[in-house]
């Protein structure tokens, strides 16, 4: 795996990120992986985000993890999920434009806070060939336009996470048409400490299934 620091610009803001490329020769499929809540310490160096991107590299898929506006050295101010989709769109464009990445095989993933960003903004569904949501809240998936989108979707959570025990979760999952791949990992809570590998393996396999073939 080869990692390099990068920056890209959207809406006049410079955002920082890290590209991870698999060993070998491209072009590779690529995935943008978004981080959890900035006001609770979330950044591109989060354990879940790193576990997924490292797993992707091992599976032959490039990735871009980046800091949302106002996080780390990324410019701007936190927008409470209302504008973060703008940099997510640009991140997918930036990743797809790299010489070693196949722009026709881009995926999108989010964890916690960033699943709400993804679920709330259907503009994000045009480019990716697959979308993975790690530990979304019930609020994030409720009546989301993603429910009716035809893009392959995956939801993964732990059996100790609040989503599993939320009233109405079965109703909301039932509205996904076509159905989303739904996985519950035993023993895992919202933070995935000690369970990163089990989670990442399933997320990576989902992206392999949908992105590996040109």
Describe the protein in words.
- The chain has 214 residues and is of the alpha/beta class.
- It has helices at 47-58, 84-96, 113-120, 138-141, 169-174, 196-211; strands spanning 2-10, 13-21, 28-34, 62-66, 101-111, 130-134, 153-158, 181-185.
- Strands 1-2-4-3-5-6-7-8 form an eight-stranded mixed beta sheet, with helices on both faces.
- β7, α5 (169-174) and β8 (181-185) form a beta-alpha-beta unit.
- α1 crosses α6 (196-211).
- The longest helix is centred in the last third of the chain and has 16 residues, at 196-211.
- It starts with a strand and ends with a helix.
- The model has no long low-confidence stretch (mean pLDDT 97).
List key phrases describing it.
214 residues, alpha/beta, eight-stranded mixed beta sheet, 6 helices, 28% helix
């Amino acid at each position: 795996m080869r990692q390099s620091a990068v920056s890209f610009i959207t809406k006049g803001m410079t955002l920082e990120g890290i590209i991870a490329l698999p060993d070998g020769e491209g072009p590779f499929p690529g995935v943008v992986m978004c981080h959890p809540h900035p006001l609770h310490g979330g950044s591109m160096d989060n354990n879940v985000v790193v576990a997924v991107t490292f797993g992707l590299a091992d599976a032959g898929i490039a990735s871009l993890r980046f800091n949302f506006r106002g996080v780390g050295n990324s410019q701007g101010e936190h927008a409470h999920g209302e504008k973060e989709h703008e940099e997510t769109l640009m991140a997918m464009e930036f990743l797809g434009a790299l010489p070693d990445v196949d722009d026709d095989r881009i995926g999108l993933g989010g964890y916690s806070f960033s699943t709400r960003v993804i679920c709330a903004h259907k503009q994000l569904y045009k480019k990716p060939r697959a979308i993975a949501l790690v530990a979304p809240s019930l609020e994030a998936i409720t009546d989301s336009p993603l429910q009716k989108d035809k893009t392959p979707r995956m939801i993964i959570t732990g059996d100790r996470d609040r989503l599993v025990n939320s009233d109405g979760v079965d109703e909301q999952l039932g509205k996904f048409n076509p159905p989303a791949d739904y996985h519950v990992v035993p023993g895992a809570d919202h933070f995935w400490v000690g369970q990163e590998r089990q989670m990442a393996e399933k997320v990576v396999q989902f992206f392999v299934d949908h992105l590996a073939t040109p």
